[in-house]
Amino acid sequence: MEVLVFVLIAVVAIGVAVGGYYLKMRRRDELAEFAQQNGLEYSVNDPFGLVDMSFTFFTKGDGRGCENVLWGRWQDLPVAVTDFWYYDESTDSKGSRSRTYHRFSVAEVQVAVWMPHVSIGRENFLTSAIEHAGFHDIEFESEDFNRTFRVKSEDREFAFKLVDARMMRWLLSIPGGFGLEVRGPKFIVYGKKLGPTQLIPLFGTAKGFHQHIPRLVWNEYGMQSGKGPGEAVPGAAPAPPPMAGPESAAGGAS
Questions:
Q1: C-alpha–C-alpha distance, residues 250 and 212, integer Å
Q2: Which H or E run contains 193?
Q3: 7: helix, coil or strand?
């Protein structure tokens, strides 16, 4: 009887492993096809070092990484999108260690502006990622916005410049499920892991956020203003998409 139980457990384990491998291969094929259809590049591995731990979101868990990177221009916005994962490690009463994995889709955009750190998340979505930062929520004039979003930053003055009235209206208009974070010459948009065709709203949110960066931010924090270095953050070859500037932020004036 014990041998039968052992055999059944082994069969189930093999079945799970085979099923997981099949799903992973199918996702790779579907993402490669999506990239080809939309004029993007695709790599199974991360050629850029996208997991930049200066972003609070990328510090989650006991271990982390990414795979399945798509990059190129989406409606003229240079952007890279990846499957990001992290795991929490735990030990039970018998000393056995286990890992719980969490998976997300993340869009990253490099911009020609050097921004202090700001995180923006809906009150009911992933806001715990920034709790340990020790900063109080920043309150804005819109009560509706304050009820819906949690904004944190070490630089309150910049946060008010970034999240102006036009940005607030746009953030309130987009569907729930995405969080945003800006730091230096980059911003990220993240949400739960998405299927290939479901990535379109993620690309669209990255595009929309870039379009709504206020002109004041471009003028005061742009690379040409001396706030930060005048070239992109170094990355592994191949070179990442170029930085997006204010000229591609249609309607970018606040």
A1: 8
A2: none
A3: helix
Q: Please enumerate in sequence order all residues whose Cβ is within 8 A of that of 12, keeping only pairs 6 or more positions apart, or say none.
A: none
Question: Taking CA 112 as the corner, what is the angle to CA 160 and CA 49, rounded to the nearest 5 degrees?
Answer: 105
Measure the CA–CA gap between 68 and 83, rounded to whole angstroms: 6
Calpha distance 101→131 (Å, rounded): 20
Rounded Cα–Cα distance for residues 104 and 72 (Å): 20
- Cα(92)–Cα(76) distance, integer angstroms: 50
Would you report the helix, strand and coil content of the chain in percent, each value rounded to 5?
35, 30, 30
How, if at all, do strands 77-91 and 97-122 pair? Answer: antiparallel
Instruction: Encode pLDDT of 84-99 as tens digits.
Output: 999 999 888 787 888 9
Tokens 């630089």, residue located: 155
Quick one: tokens of 134? 């020790």
- Token pair in block for residue 143: 């009560």
| 8 Å CB contact between 51 and 106 | no
The pTM of this model reads 0.81
> If 0-12 CB within 10 Å is exposed, 13-18 middle and 19+ buried, where does residue 197 land?
exposed
What is the rounded CA–CA span in Å between residue 49 and residue 217?
Answer: 26
Query: 244, 182 in Cβ contact below 8 A?
Result: no
**Residue 15: CA count within 13 A, CB half-sphere:** 6
Q: Domain map of the chain by residue range? A: 1-37, 42-248
Chain segment 21-71, per-residue pLDDT in tens: 667 899 999 999 999 999 999 999 999 999 999 999 999 999 999 999 999
Q: Which two three-digit tokens encode residue 172?
A: 């309130």
